[in-house]
From TrEMBL:
One Pfam family of this chain: His_kinase
Keyword set includes Coiled coil: yes
Full protein name: Histidine kinase
Lineage of the organism: Bacteria, Pseudomonadati, Bacteroidota, Flavobacteriia, Flavobacteriales
Superkingdom, natural source: Bacteria
Coiled coil: 139-173
Keywords, alphabetical: Coiled coil, Kinase, Membrane, Transferase, Transmembrane, Transmembrane helix
This protein's record includes keyword Heme: no
Ranges for domain Signal transduction histidine kinase internal region: 166-243
Extent of the signal sequence: none
GO MF assignments: kinase activity
């Protein structure tokens, strides 16, 4: 805030406070009126109580409430409040005495019995203090609630950004062995001038375009995900040749059905990376079916006796679990089964629900 803005804000606060105390003076004038007294006399008498009322109010509003009551220092607040009441009550008594002496004179007992009216004055002054203090508490509570809401929104926004960054990181977890092996295969084919070389380069280019660029989208067509799985399988067929037996079946997929990108392809990549058969052949079965917009995906790969088994499920599957938890928290079911001969992954996904945390 610049200097002129600060002065403008200060001027507005001063004006509002002045109007408030003018209303308080009129309030005192109305309630402190007594017999045979004209308006000027009553206003003069009421004005004697403004300084102590203003002082007591500001002590509570700007000192006791924010420093002791709001931080829940109740004992200290109570002690200071009692002290403030005792001091202010003394000043109110003195103000009442001098106010009556000046406005009414020594015959005040006939028109203004001090013992009876002093309690009335104390109640009136402390009523103003109580109203102002209550308003201050409401204002502080509103400000605190607004700040908490803003802080909550900032925390949620930060968490969302972290999740988005995590999703980007998880989507880019592509095993370099696939690219390395495929390029080696292409190199070998090129040395023999094999006619499949250009087609394999084009397939690899399409797959890398999908992995590197299309996955930046929050959602892609399920049909595109399946087509790139087929593309991936074709590349692996050229690499494994007769050492691969693969069966891939997919139901017809409506164009409108969408999925978060790179959810299924890592499962396929994982089966090629870790699968192996006792006869030296890798056997993989992939099935994808749709029941309305409930997708059922199942992939089974063979395991040989010499296949290395880790205690966990591997980084790839753990990444997919994390992505599914972020995107489809309550709309998916993932099962992993590992027996002597086969490794099986089953995923049920509700594609009718929009993934959470996706922009």
């Amino acid at each position: 805030m610049n200097l002129s803005g600060a002065f403008l804000e200060l001027g507005k606060r001063f004006l509002l406070h002045s109007l408030f105390w003018l209303v308080v003076l009129l309030f005192f004038t109305f309630f402190f009126g007594f017999e045979d007294a004209d308006f000027k006399t009553v206003v003069t008498f009421s004005a004697f109580f403004l300084p102590v009322t203003i002082g007591t109010t500001y002590v509570f509003v700007y000192r006791l409430i924010p420093k002791y009551l709001i931080p829940k220092r109740y004992l200290t607040f109570t002690l200071y409040s009692l002290a403030a009441f005792l001091i202010s009550a003394s000043y109110i008594t003195i103000s009442a005495f001098y106010g009556i002496m000046i406005t009414v004179g020594y015959g005040y007992e006939e028109k203004f019995p001090i013992t009876k009216s002093l309690i009335y004055i104390l109640i009136s002054v402390y009523l103003v203090v109580a109203i102002a203090s209550a308003f201050s508490l409401l204002k502080n509570n509103y400000s605190a609630a607004a700040k908490n809401e803003e802080l909550k929104n900032r925390i949620l926004e930060a968490q969302l950004k972290l999740k988005e960054q995590e999703l980007q990181y998880l989507k880019m977890q592509i095993h370099p062995h696939f690219l390395f092996n495929t390029l080696n295969t292409i190199y070998g084919l090129s040395l023999t001038n094999n006619q499949a070389t250009p087609e394999m380069i084009l397939q690899l280019s399409d797959l890398l375009d999908y992995i590197l660029y299309q996955t930046r989208k929050p959602l892609v067509k399920l049909e595109d995900e399946v087509n790139h799985i087929r593309n991936y399988i074709d590349l692996e067929k050229k690499r494994f040749r007769e050492d691969l037996e693969i069966n891939f079946h997919s139901d017809p997929i409506p164009e409108k059905v969408q999925i978060a990108p790179m959810l299924l392809l890592p499962f396929v990549e994982n089966s090629f990376k870790h699968g192996k058969g006792n006869d030296g052949k890798l056997k993989i079965t992939i099935e994808l079916s749709l029941d309305d917009e409930i997708m059922n995906f199942r992939i089974i790969n063979s395991l040989g006796e010499k296949t290395e088994r880790s205690d966990g499920e591997g980084i790839g599957l753990e990444n997919i679990r994390r992505r599914l938890q972020i995107l489809y928290e309550n709309d998916h079911e993932l099962k992993v089964e590992d027996d002597k001969d086969n490794f099986c992954v089953s995923l049920n996904l509700n594609l009718a629900k929009n993934p959470t945390n996706v922009r």
